[in-house]
Automatic annotation (TrEMBL):
SUPFAM superfamilies: ALDH-like (SSF53720). PROSITE patterns: ALDEHYDE_DEHYDR_GLU (PS00687). This is Succinate-semialdehyde dehydrogenase (NADP(+)). The active site is at E273. It comes from Isoptericola luteus. The keyword Secreted does not apply. The keyword Cytoplasm does not apply. Belongs to the aldehyde dehydrogenase family. It comes from the Bacteria. Residues 41-500 form the Aldehyde dehydrogenase domain. The lineage of its organism: Bacteria, Bacillati, Actinomycetota, Actinomycetes, Micrococcales. InterPro entries: Ald_DH/histidinol_DH, Ald_DH_C, Ald_DH_CS_GLU, Ald_DH_N, Aldehyde_DH_dom.
Length: 540
């Protein structure tokens, strides 16, 4: 991988000139092997990221320019045909090794994830587990997903048709900060297995995790230039959309619309994994002993900064009071913390911006008449961006958190009198990413699921059963996205479908041309008889 720092190896380039190196949480020489992987030139500026747990400067690294993005894509384009020409087995071996590497070196990547995002170690481990699952899945199922398929030809026997999946070329992946390991790899792995090259633009706050992935892929045997990282914000992301053959975007709905518009102009494919305003319904028959801890996890994993996280609780009125009493007590007992170990239940928000957004949503709801059953406060005693897990009741319809994604540890409560009303409330949003239903009667929950407008509906769990089931597609209805990650669908989005049709009868004198050579009305008459016979014989 080529970078501007290869030649001189000067650490000075990696250090923010305004800050003494000693003030960084991560020593510059420790992160230098990662930071040198950024595709960058000398004049594109630097970015300083922050340790969310304390607000201290974490690391400073160079950014990529538009020309760097063009260079990364050019080199990826040059490397891709040789990769695609390898056997599928040779490509999947790399995935298998990567899965093993991530499991073996998990303490390193768990530390990095926690330090860049501020999340708890348990939330970070969900990323490690996800990558182990996804690598295994595509290593095993890649062959089936990419297999050629026969199709019936226009003339039975005389026309042989096969449908092939070809890699699109270079896939761009733009990722947010909330799952910096998972969201880079769940797009990159199906792309690589299908024979594409990948250029990734992570969020600036979580660039080190993407660079660690680049290092782990190289260690797993991925040839040079097939996975590269460009660093920067929206301008670098937009430059990537301008260069690649497919863009896999994960982020907010607002940015997703811009990416989709540009991809539309360029006529490239776009997979869009966007925001949610996810509901969770506790039916009258739910078993509260299992429901309460499950709902706590559904709402507060990664401090609610999870696209599938639950932000709207829909409670049947028969169990609402008892559920809330037990739920609020469990939420109050959640342990907040910043240690790089498994002691905390809930970590920090990622940044001052996220803290401001969460605070604005809660304060707005409270000012409009909502009540905080628990939480509703900034926990600066734990760290600068910590916010208490919060349950809001009586949230008015015009409150920000009633309709907009908060993307934080805040959930609001609505009571309903029937399943039908629950479905109406669940669907009363322009988002449709994830929904959850809790009931001991799974058949009834399945019937409700069929009426819910969401890309995943999880019964008796909040999100993990759908997210972790990587053979099944995951994505959004409505403004929550377009296309799907995971499973066969992810492979389909990064491949072109090519039909190869062979006319077999020509050397025996049977061909479209020999038919047309009969002249006049005769070919049409012959074809009419043939098609009528096929219809009667129910052929095709
Ligand atoms: P964001 O849209 O602000 O940024 C996402 C990424 O897009 C970042 O890397 C950013 O630098 C880049 N970007 C910004 N402007 C761009 C542009 N004009 N062109 C190209 N790239 C651009 O999102 P965020 O606030 O960082 O992330 C949180 C959002 O992501 C939430 O809405 C969350 O629900 C969503 N999300 C969705 C999923 C999913 O699978 N559906 C998963 C995780 C997060």
């Amino acid at each position: 991988m080529s970078t501007a720092h290869e030649s001189d190896g000067a650490l000075g380039d990696l250090i923010d000139p305004e800050l003494p190196a000693a003030t960084y949480v991560l020593e510059p020489d420790v992160v230098a092997p990662l930071v040198r992987r950024i595709v960058t030139s000398d004049d594109a500026g630097t970015h300083r990221s922050t340790l969310p747990f304390s607000g201290a400067p974490l690391v400073s690294f160079p950014l990529s320019s538009v020309a760097d993005v063009e260079g990364a894509v050019r080199r990826a384009r040059a490397a891709q045909p040789a990769w695609a020409a390898l056997s599928l087995r040779e490509r999947t071996v790399v995935l298998d090794r990567l899965g093993a590497t991530v499991l073996r070196r998990q303490s390193e990547i768990l530390d990095l994830i926690q330090m860049e995002t501020g999340k708890s170690r348990r939330s970070a481990f969900e990323e490690v587990a996800d990558v182990a699952q996804v690598t295994r899945h595509y290593a095993v199922r890649g062959r089936r997903y990419l297999a050629d398929r026969r199709a019936s030809g226009v003339f039975p026997v005389l026309t042989g048709v096969r449908v092939h999946r070809r890699p699109v070329g270079v896939v761009g992946a733009i990722a947010p900060w909330n799952y910096p390991l998972t969201l880079v790899l769940s797009e990159a792995l199906p792309a690589l297995v299908a024979g594409n090259a990948v250029v990734v633009k992570p969020d600036p706050q979580t660039t080190l995790c993407a660079l660690w992935v680049a290092e782990a892929l190289e260690e797993s045997g991925l040839p040079e230039d097939l996975f590269s990282v460009v660093a920067g914000g929206g301008d670098v992301g937009a430059a990537l959309v301008d260069q690649v053959d497919h863009i896999a975007f994960t982020g907010s709905t607002a940015t997703g619309r811009k990416v989709a518009a540009r991809a539309g102009e360029r006529l490239i494919g776009a997979t869009l994994e966007l925001g949610g305003k996810n509901p969770l319904y506790v039916a009258a028959d739910a078993d509260l002993d299992t429901t309460v801890p499950g709902v706590v996890r559904a709402c507060f994993s990664n401090s609610g900064q999870l696209c599938m996280s639950i932000e709207r609780l829909v409670l049947h009125e028969r169990i609402a009071d008892e559920f809330l009493e037990r739920f609020v007590e469990a939420v109050r007992g959640l342990e907040l913390g910043s240690a790089l170990d498994y002691t905390a239940d809930v970590g920090s928000l990622v940044s001052a911006d996220q803290l401001a957004r969460v605070t604005e949503h809660v304060d707005d709801a409270l000012a409009k008449g909502a009540r905080a059953l628990v939480g509703g406060v900034h926990r600066s005693d734990v760290g600068p961006f910590f916010y208490a897990p919060t349950v809001l009741d009586d949230v008015p319809a015009d409150a920000l958190c009633a309709t907009q994604e908060t993307f934080g540890p805040v959930v609001s409560v609505t009571r309903v009198a029937s399943d039908a009303e629950a479905v109406r409330v669940m669907n009363a949003t322009d988002m449709g990413l994830n929904a959850s239903i809790w009931s001991v009667d799974v058949a009834r929950a399945r019937r409700l699921a069929a009426q819910v407008e969401a890309g995943t509906v999880v019964i008796n769990d909040g999100y993990l059963s759908a997210w972790g089931s990587v053979a099944a597609p995951m994505g959004g209805f409505k403004a929550s996205g377009q296309g799907r990650r995971h499973g066969r669908e992810a492979i389909e989005s990064v491949t072109e479908v090519q039909t190869v049709a062979v006319q077999r009868g020509a050397r025996f004198g049977i061909s479209v041309d020999s038919l047309y050579a009969l002249g006049g009305e005769t070919p049409s008459k012959v074809l009419t008889v043939a098609m009528d016979a096929m219809r009667r014989l129910r052929l095709r």
